[in-house]
Model the fold of this input.
Amino acid sequence: MDQEGSLLLVTLEGIDGSGKSTLHTALKILLADLDPIFTREPGATWVGDSVRRAIAEQIDPVTEATLFVADHAAHLATVVRPALKEGVLVISDRYSDSRYAYQSVTLQGIVPEPEKWLRAMHNGWTIIPDRTFLCVLPVDDALTRLKPDAQREHFEKREILEKVQNNYLAYAKAEPGRFVIVDAMLSPEIVAKFVADAIQQDLKTGKKRGDKKRSPE
Ligand code: TYD
Done:
């Protein structure tokens, strides 16, 4: 599987409106020669469909959180593990950090110490990404990029996204060797080129977990 010195599992994270899905699409072109697998959470299986339904119906925060974790398990089983086994580069639009960042907020007051609870649910079977690009921008700017209020998912509110982004920033601070903060206010082309170059560089130098990167100037 994950051989020493190689970078195989890359994740893109950030609040809604941070442009990470646009980035994901741009990387398909910029990194085509590497033939990566592009994937996402919530995923394409029926488990992913059930997550989307739970979000839309706002059924219950614990139901929603555990479905997100189930979707992650299905994603690992059907996409991530098989690809890594073959030595294929995987680039995922959202992954486990989305759970820690978002569900820590939605489960506040519902389960004690939500982040601890969520991390414990993943421990032992999840695969930690080799590199995570975190798209960061002011929440007000992210909100202007989202659909009108009435059509938004329940996560897409200022007070929630502020907490989610603070969570992400805390994770990036705690794991500077894995996270790369990307300035999402820069143009989509510059962001995509920066991330594509960083991935190429990581692959070339064989570095992972431990080398610090900075956002483009
Ligand atoms: P997604 O389909 O990626 O939305 P977008 O393309 O707008 O980023 O994800 C849907 C919502 O689900 C999004 O608001 C983030 C949220 N989410 C979580 O709360 N927890 C998770 O573990 C994941 C993967 C997503």
